């Protein structure tokens, strides 16, 4: 699936415009119904992948273009899992519940697009999947609108570990070596272990971590209460119900529960969690604690960091649940239970490479890890084709060398590791290094400049980018100047003056040239001295 072009009418930010994403001019459909729409996306379906790189100054509308695309794709897209949304919302406070029709609201109020008839069930109608990747967006903004849409945020380090965990489960061991190669750790191996999150574990006592007023003890109490009331949440006390809401509101649980392949109700999933080996192991470890405890800080405030327990005589245990294990060993439901507790901050899932934990690696290394794990974190119902992926600023935190390698690395991840075909990858970037290497990465690559013409946003394809020097690319297509404008103006005045002299009296041009050279040398020396 490929987006060829997009037409907007009276868009509040982009104006009346036509954005071409592939550089090939195609006539828009003359269908009467489509011509009434305020936004039209023209699609094609080549068998190969397409890579489009959008460049342009800040404020020209690249991010707004992405927002318009995914809100439009979700407008009037009634969730197929409406019953599941209602089941979820009955247990969760209204402000935290899932919603539908968000796409229409955003388009109407933010962008002035209200007449778009043919967008109903747009993704399903076109057998298309849409994903949005950003380092700033908060996941869940459009959740519940379409099972064919997904958004992934790179903003939290805990999400990096969760993403990598899913990739390790899904991908071959050989693919891990590709990641090691690109982060310059080919001589190292990945190691994994699982620990109960704590602030100290001694011979006589231990301090369990508290996050959002909840400790692992609260989780055990919740499941004991669920057992007693036979998983009828109407009989839970207020404290247990609050813990349950935090538990169910994790991104890991929501993604699993809302996946079209999930056919279990919430109470069935909770019963499955209780039956896992991991739950029994945690319960065994924590059974060594006495009933006396001391909270460090106020339990329901940001100041609460942990809860201290004494060990029952002779029952000292270790917080280590699994050492040097592979997440592939876990059953799906046990892995989900683990990831929920990791996301809540109650379990520490340590992934190290060469002795360095993932969260302690550089931001650039973490970015390459997220790229490797990207497609493993799309919903299970996503196919390996017909994906349109919108990626905002992929160069964030990447060293210039890694920016140059990005087009090649992304293609290897998408095509060689995940075997994705017939898809369109659209990147909004400010990196000339990514742009310069983009054309060495496949047969269908386009660089499109987005720019403002008055109040209207327009597009222009940049041809033969590989022929540009870095200075030419920066000045011509990124609108940069690397010389001082006042000094350039003074130099131009000298050259113009000499040109006029030559026109007036060509007989002395050689002598005048010598004077010109000395004057330029004086200007250069003056510039150099001031810079020192």
Describe what this molecule looks like in 3D.
- The chain has 532 residues and is α/β, with parallel strands linked by helices.
- It has helices spanning 32-35, 62-74, 82-91, 102-111, 122-125, 157-170, 173-182, 216-228, 238-248, 251-258, 266-274, 277-286, 332-343, 363-373, 400-417, 432-438, 470-477, 485-504, 509-531; strands at 2-11, 15-20, 39-44, 50-55, 129-134, 149-153, 190-196, 198-201, 205-209, 289-296, 306-311, 320-323, 347-353, 356-357, 387-392, 424-428, 445-453, 456-461.
- The protein has three domains: 2-161 and 379-471, 3-Layer(aba) Sandwich (Rossmann fold); 190-353, no CATH class; 485-531.
- Helices cover 40% and strands 20% of the residues.
- The strands form four sheets. The protein has a seven-stranded mixed beta sheet with strand order 6-5-15-16-4-17-18, with helices on one face.
- The chain starts with a strand and ends with a helix.
Distance between the termini: 56 Å
The proportion of strand residues reads 15-25%
Strand order of the largest sheet: 6-5-15-16-4-17-18
Proportion in helices? 40-55%
Please identify, by name, the CATH architecture of the largest domain: 3-Layer(aba) Sandwich
CATH C-level class of the largest domain? Alpha Beta
Tell me the domain tally.
Answer: 3
Overall outline: globular
User: How many β-strand runs?
Assistant: 18
Radius of gyration: 29 Å
How many DSSP H or I helices?
Answer: 19
CATH third-tier fold name of the largest domain: Rossmann fold
Give the low-confidence spans: 137-144
Main β-sheet, in a few words?
Answer: 7 strands, mixed
Structural class: alpha/beta
Mean pLDDT reading: 82
């Amino acid at each position: 699936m490929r987006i060829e072009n997009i037409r907007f009418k009276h868009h509040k930010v982009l104006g009346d415009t036509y954005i071409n994403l592939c550089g090939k001019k195609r006539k828009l459909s003359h269908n009467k119904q489509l011509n009434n729409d305020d936004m039209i996306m023209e699609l094609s379906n080549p068998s190969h992948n397409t890579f489009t790189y959008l460049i342009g100054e800040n404020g020209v509308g690249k991010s707004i273009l992405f927002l318009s695309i995914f809100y439009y794709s979700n407008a009037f897209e009634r969730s197929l899992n409406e019953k599941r949304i209602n089941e979820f919302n009955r247990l969760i406070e209204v402000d935290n519940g899932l919603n539908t029709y968000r796409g229409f609201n955003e388009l109407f109020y933010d962008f002035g697009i209200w007449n778009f008839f043919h967008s109903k069930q747009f993704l399903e109608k076109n057998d298309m999947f849409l994903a949005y990747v950003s380092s700033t967006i908060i996941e869940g903004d459009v959740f519940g609108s379409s099972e064919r849409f997904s958004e992934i945020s790179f903003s939290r380090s805990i999400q990096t570990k969760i993403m990598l965990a899913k990739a390790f489960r899904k991908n071959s061991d050989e693919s891990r070596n590709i990641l090691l190669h690109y982060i310059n750790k080919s001589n190292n191996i990945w190691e994994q272990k699982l620990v109960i999150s704590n602030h100290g574990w001694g011979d006589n006592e231990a301090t369990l971590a508290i996050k959002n007023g909840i400790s692992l003890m609260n989780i055990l109490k919740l499941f004991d209460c669920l057992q007693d009331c036979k998983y009828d949440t109407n009989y839970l006390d207020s404290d247990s119900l609050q813990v349950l809401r935090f538990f169910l509101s994790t991104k890991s649980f929501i993604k699993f529960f809302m996946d079209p392949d999930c056919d279990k109700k919430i109470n069935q999933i909770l019963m499955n969690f209780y039956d896992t080996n991991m739950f029994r192991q945690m319960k065994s470890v924590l059974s060594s604690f006495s009933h006396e405890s001391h909270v460090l800080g106020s339990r329901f405030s940001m100041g609460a960091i942990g809860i201290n327990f004494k060990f029952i005589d002779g029952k000292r245990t270790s917080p280590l649940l699994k050492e040097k294990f592979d997440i592939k060993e876990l059953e799906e439901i046990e892995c989900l239970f683990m990831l929920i507790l990791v996301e809540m901050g109650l379990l520490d899932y340590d992934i190290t490479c060469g002795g360095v934990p993932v969260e302690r690696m550089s931001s650039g290394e973490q970015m390459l890890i997220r790229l490797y794990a990207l497609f493993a974190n799309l919903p299970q119902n996503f196919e390996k084709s017909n994906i349109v992926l919108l990626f905002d600023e992929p160069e964030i935190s990447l060293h210039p060398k890694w920016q140059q390698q990005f087009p090649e690395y992304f293609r290897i991840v998408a095509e060689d590791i995940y075997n994705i075909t017939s898809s369109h990858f659209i990147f909004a970037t400010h990196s000339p290094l990514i742009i310069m290497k983009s054309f060495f990465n496949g047969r269908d690559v386009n660089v499109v400049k987005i720019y403002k013409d008055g109040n209207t946003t327009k597009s222009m394809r940049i041809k033969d980018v590989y022929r540009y020097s870095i200075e030419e690319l920066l000045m011509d297509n990124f609108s940069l100047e690397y010389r001082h404008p006042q000094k350039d103006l003074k130099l131009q005045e000298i050259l113009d003056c000499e040109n006029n002299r030559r026109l007036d009296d060509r007989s002395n041009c050689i002598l005048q040239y010598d004077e010109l050279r000395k004057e330029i040398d004086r200007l250069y020396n003056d510039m150099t001295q001031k810079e020192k």
